[in-house]
Fold ABC transporter permease.
Amino acid sequence: MTTSPTGAAPPSAAPVDKGERRRSGTRSRPLPGGRSLLGAIGAGCFLLIWEIVPRAGVVSPQYLPPASEVLATLGERLLVPGFWVAVGDTVAGWGLGLAISFVAAVVLGFLVGSVPVLRRFTSSTVEFLRPIPSVALIPLAILMYGTDIQSTLLLVVYASFWQIYIQVLYGVADVDPVAEQTAKSYGLGRLARIRYVVWPSALPYVLTGLRLGAAVALILAVTAQLTIGSPGLGQEISVAQSGGATTLVYALIVATGALGVIVNVGVRMLERRVLHWHTSVRSETAQ
């Protein structure tokens, strides 16, 4: 004799539409090039507002020329050889100063960071020198080198050195002590431990310091040219301001900003290429 089951069967889960699943998966992924598109839209909106404000009379065009006039002046300036000479002088001062500060900061950072006694011994000196603004050294730079490029280098090196040096110290301090002790137990010397243990661990900090130092170096290079009168875009801006060429002043400022964007994008690309194995870069590229 057979009996029919009296318990009700558990309700089955509602089927999920494959199209819905595909749509939800697509929705969670950002569009390729979305960041660049948003950046371009933001820049376009900024230029549009800039164009409208002086033409609507909110600000006098004498003090804020329309964006179209500024860009037209910049386009004309691009055809002048002297403009590219000024760009070359600015890039030379920026690049040379950044290279000097990078090498000095990395070498001293690894040396001081690897010796705890030396780090404690120099900490008070670092905390005293680091907050001194580079512009405070302008009179000293003029006294020592006049208006030559050495004055610009002095300010650029001093400002960017601390950005890189502090990051290198943080990177050396962040090394896993277990990994370092393991390398030591395998008989690796100090130089080998720095190469295979300390350097890979500190490299993200080093490149962060390079990115910060590159931006600060460009700011100080242009500032030195503005105030000291050494050759470069800063000097061109100062001369245009003295001559009352307001539109040209804004055009040169836009050129300086574009140079800063190029520097930042270049350092970012270098960072992603060198740190392609790092989790932060892999997660960024996966987005």
Q: What stands out?
A: Residues 183 and 192 are 9 Å apart (CA to CA).
